[in-house]
Every structure is written in C-alpha cells, then in structure tokens.
Amino acid sequence: MSLLGLPVELLDHIAFSLHPSSHLDFALACRLLANLETIKHQLAHHRECFDRYRHTTDVGTATIPALLRALLTDVPDTSLAPHADEVHETRSLRLSPGPASADPIAAWHVRSMIVFGARSTRKAWQQRIWDVRSPVYAPEPMEEKQEVLTGQEVESVQLLAQRWFGDGSLRSMTVVDELMEDIRNGRDEAMKALLVAMCPRIRVLSTSGNLCTSYRDNRIGIMRHPIRTISKLAHMVHVARLPIPPGFQSLRQISISVPGNPAGHLCWVSPASVKPLLSLPKLEHLYLAHIGSVDGVRDEILELEPQSANVSSVYFRQTALSSADVWDLLRPIRALRSLTFEECLIDNVELDSTAIISLVSRVVASHSEHLESLTFPERNIQYRQDVRFPLDQFSSVRNLKHITINIEDLRAKENSRRSSRLSPLDDPSYADQSLFAWPEALEMHSLTSLELLGATVLSPAVTASLDATLAHAIESGRMPKLRCVDPRKVQLPISRTNLGGGPTAGEFSSRREAFPLLCELGTKRGFAVLTSWEEDVRDFVPDLLPKTIQANIAEYFG
User: Fold this and answer.
1) What angle do CA 268, 271, 274 make, to 5 degrees?
2) Which residue among 22, 177, 546, 553 sits deepest, i.e. has the most Cβ atoms within 10 Å of its Cβ?
3) Which domain of life is it from (predicted)?
C-alpha cells in the first residue's frame, strides 16, 4: 500500500511524528501530502523558526528558556529511570513525550549562538540585559512575572542531562548535579551550555562582552559562563567515552572574547578551560581573545593525545599565556593550517623572547605538512641580535600560502651608556648580512601572499636593500606562485605632500617610489605590490583569506 492509500488522519500523524529534517522531503513526495494541513503548518513554522533562531543571542530574556524547552521533545520515561549503575541504558530506554512547550523545529534551526552577557539570578531574568553595543540585536518585549522553567521542565532537563552526561560515576553525578543546581538558581550559563551541546545543527559559538558573574577577593573573576561549562561537559564526554551530543558533533567554530569589565576586574578563562574544546570532533576554527594564565587559579587539565584534534585555524589575540600553555593547546592538533598571534604576551613579554622563538620552531616542525598561514604581527621574531629565528625549519613547509615577516626591533641592545655606533636599521651592510637573509632560507613554492610589518622607520638605504633583496628572492624563483606582496605596514619616511612642497632628502614621495624594483618586477611577473590602502589583498588572493580564522570571525568581531 502506498502513502496515498492511507487515511488522512494517519498521514497527519506520520507527518507530526517525523524528524524536522524530513518534513520538506515528506511534503515534496506528492501534491496530496503537500496539501495536508499538518505539513502546511510545519513548513510555516520552519520559516518562523529559521528567521527567529538561526542566529540566536541572549539579549532577550525569552530566547534561551524557549530553546531549552524546545529540546525536551524526547526524554527518558521517568517510570523507567535507572539506578546509577544502570545509567548507560538510558540511551536505549523507551522515550515519552516531553512538555507541551517542546518544539524540535526551533532547536533544529539554531545555527549560531552569540553570548553577550550572563544572568546569574532569577531576578535578572525580569530585567533587560545591559548595553550590548550593537543596534542589530534589540531586546525582546518583556513578560511580567516570567518564569524561567516550570518544575516539570526542570525535571525533564535533569533527565536530559543524565541521559547524555551521566555514566554512574561520581564524576558524572557531580557534573550533572552542578549543572542542575545552576539551572534551578537561574544561571543561564548552564542553560546555554546545554543548548550548545544539544542543538543538532549549531555551527558557531561566539562570546563577547563582560561575562563575569562572581569575583574573588583578589579581584580575579572566575567566569561562570558557557565556555567553562561547555568545556566541563566536553571533558566529561571525552574522559568517560560517552556518546557525543549532537551539538558537540556539529560545532565548527568557537570565538572566545573575554575582556575585563568596566569596574576593572579581570575576567579569567584559562588555557585549561579551552583545551577540552579541542576534543569536539568537527571543530575547525578557534579564536581566543583575552584569555590568560593566572597564578594560583587552575582548572582541571585534560590530557589529549597528539594528533587527535581536527582544528585547522587558531587565532590568539591579546592573550597572556606561557609558551608551554600555547604549545599545550597546539600539540593535539592534527593538521594546523593557520596560526596567528596579535598583540599577545608570551611568558609575560611581547613576542621577542627566546621562548617564542622556540615555540614557533616546534609549531613549524610539527605542522609543516599542512601549515598554510603563519602570522606574528608583533615585535620581530625573525631576527634579533641575540636570537636567531630557526629559518631552516621552513625548509619542510611545502604548503605555506601566507606568512608575515616583521622587520622590527633590530636596533642593537645598548648597555646603560649610549653607544655612538650606527643602529643596524641605519647600516645597510648589517641589513644585507642579517635582516634580509631570510628569503635565501625559504623555498616557498606554495606562497601566494607575503606581508611585511615594522613599526620602526627604515632609513632609505635599508629600504633600498629590502627592495633589492625581495626582488632578487622572487626573481630567483623561490616564490613562483606569489600573487601579492603587502609592504604597507612597513614604516617609511614618506613626505607629507599635503603640507606643501615635495619630498626632502631621505624621504620618499610614495611607497611605490620606495620599492621600485619590487613594483617593476610585479608588473613583469604579474603579482600585485600593495602600496595604497584603497587596495584589498582579497582582490589578489581570494582563495586564501576566506580559509583563515580572521575571515570567519569578521561577521561578529569586525
């Protein structure tokens, strides 16, 4: 018997029982099914949920509880709830319908979650969240005497948590009990963590803004927010070898921004809090801003096997970490393709220490097969008088498409008294021997984009040496696939023609004049030399930048 031979009532029941992913396929089977009132209602509800929940935020007080209720469609029957030693069987128990407010279609359409703040008490749910500095996400209308979750819903949430995160051990019981205590107390970081773990198609999680909800006497805020709670749940799943929740299976990108709050407290998220996220099976991009190590405050450390994580892009921004912490995060990654440091402190100093040199050497050596983008827009890590960057490590990097070379911090270190000798930046012979030796050590056959940085103004002689060295390296065939050279962040003595008059001695009228050999070779060989800020590197290297974490987080962080 075909579907057309079944009673309409039975077809309605079948349509109502289908998984959200099958609704459209069922409606397209034939015209009769498409005209069913149940199907029409479902498809209209799909559109409504898509518009409302596709990009979920915590600005309105109704969104998070509503989505949590939506997850409670199938919960273990309480009459069959097992004892602790039988908890593994909960995943195969007969399921009973959840609360009437359950809505599987709503949870199905959550693709990203942006967390701006945290509500830590029941009273906080009755007031609007603080300014989120964005006109896009307007607070939702408030409901008077709004109840976060009913007693039945809390019980269903507990059964859901036990189903996925309970294995009968004391550890799992503690995790579930802490999760439920936070939910009963109205702490929404636990609700958001459960949402991220259970929404079946969520791909992006972003946190932004002040998330501190508690402080210690030493003014270190131990954050009670989704990142720490999600990490705790991911840690539990990994160490107990539990089935991976659907949301953890679908997450592709996590962006963590943890700035200090206006009162001056430091919101703290440690590397150990982030490391369990690497166990998520499909996580590709990790953006970490303002995380750091704090003496005397530690999270439980999760040991991950080398070559076990699938993350391809890691972006550190304004982080204060030790080189050991950074390596501990990067070591488990199987195929790192893009690594960026921006305004970071490593070992309590800027990126010019021997520790960061050693760190970069280890990263390049361990990920040489897949590394495509390496960016350190900080103080020079390529050459210093007392530290030499291990360029021989790059001989094994065959897929590198983008690299940032910083030519800063080459001035000789003086003792307490001043020296009358020339600074290396004013000495072309030193530049020829030291500063510009790096192209000779690189066999960048896959390189498509080269960026130069430097905050110290170069003299005309050193600029000419840089121009000649780059042109020679490119003309010798070391970078045959090069499509773009970007020297716009190199500080040069450019004349201020807008004040009248032309360039004086020792000045250039434009960047194009500063790099004549490079520009001429670019015209001859067909690669771009960016000399104006009106030019965009994406116009010349469109196949590279979308793969980096910078492009992936641009939608939320600009």
Assistant:
1) 95
2) 553
3) Eukaryota
Distance of alpha carbon 166 from the chain centroid: 29
* Paired tokens of 39: 């199907």
pLDDT on residue 483:
86
Tokens 């498809």 belong to 43
- Which of 449, 455, 463, 462 minimizes the C-alpha distance to 530? 449
Measured distance CA(205)–CA(191) in Å, rounded: 14
Q: Summarize the confidence of residues 259-277 as an average pLDDT.
A: 64
Q: By C-alpha distance, which of 30, 120, 204 is closest to 39?
A: 30
- Only one residue has tokens 């897929």, namely 399
Query: How are beta strands 220-222 and 112-115 bridged, if at all?
Result: unpaired
Identify the residue whose tokens are 């021989």: 392
pTM: 0.71
Read off the pLDDT of residues 470-505 as tens digits, 9 standing for 90 and up.
888 788 777 788 888 888 888 887 765 544 555 566
Please state, as a whole number, how many other Cβ atoms lie within 10 Å of the Cβ of residue 56. 24
Contact by Cβ (8 Å): 484, 537: yes
pLDDT single digits (tens) 335-383: 888 888 877 777 765 554 556 667 777 887 788 778 877 776 544 343 3
Interatomic CA distance for residues 439 and 391, integer angstroms: 9
- Please count the other Cβ atoms lying within 10 Å of the Cβ belonging to residue 414: 10
**How far apart are the C-alpha atoms of 164 and 162, rounded to whole Å?**
6
- The pLDDT assigned to 516 comes to 92
Residue with tokens 């020679």, as numbered in its chain: 472
Q: How confident is the model at residue 34, as a pLDDT?
A: 67
In angstroms and rounded to an integer, the radius of gyration of the C-alpha atoms of the chain is 28
354 in helix, strand or coil?
helix
For 418, the 3-state DSSP assignment is coil
Beta strands per DSSP E along 192-269: 204-207, 220-222, 253-257, 266-268
Structural contact between residues 297 and 271, judged by C-beta atoms closer than 8 angstroms: no
In degrees and rounded to multiples of 5, residue 444 shows phi and psi of: -90, 70
pLDDT of residue 174: 85
**Pick from 409, 518, 506, 496: which is nearest to 460 by CA?**
506
Q: What is the Cα–Cα distance from 87 to 93, expressed in whole angstroms?
A: 10
Residue 306 has what DSSP assignment?
A: T
Backbone angles phi, psi at 184, to 5 degrees: -65, -30
Instruction: Kindly report which listed range (55-64, 302-311, 414-423, 511-520) carries the lowest average pLDDT score.
Output: 414-423
Q: Which residue has the tokens 């900080």?
A: 378
8 Å CB contact between 173 and 210: no
Q: Are 305 and 332 in contact (CB under 8 A)?
A: yes
